[in-house]
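Section 5.1 Outputs to date
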Amino acid sequence: MTQLKIKKILCTVDFSDESKKALDFAYSLSSQIPGCELVVISVLRPIPTPIGDFTGANETLIDDDQDNLKAVSERLNTLVHDTKGDCMAKITDKAVLGNPVDEILRNINEEKPDLVVMGNKKHGFRRGIFTGSVSERVSADSPVSVLIVR
């Protein structure tokens, strides 16, 4: 039996209770693995831009996106440092703008983690059948193992 060597964990956070449980789990796991690195990301969906509006709304929405991204980045930084406790792992946090599934998968390919840790909000059958959850879609397309924390 080969032993799994985890050197880097990527954890996604959307500030829900479920994602905070996932972050706690990722901290706990990474603190037990000498030299393990933990990357914590949060993805902010862009504000939809009205089509055909020539009043300058596009600039306002882009500015709003950047302001919101800065606020999410500050909130993520606070969450990471408040939750850190005695975790000895190297921790990086970053907030990104885009579609959550696409950005998480892009970061998985970029960061090359050995494990992805995510929370899961159970939305029910009707909503899930049409869109699927972010964690389901990421786990289906991820090149590495995805651990879903409930």
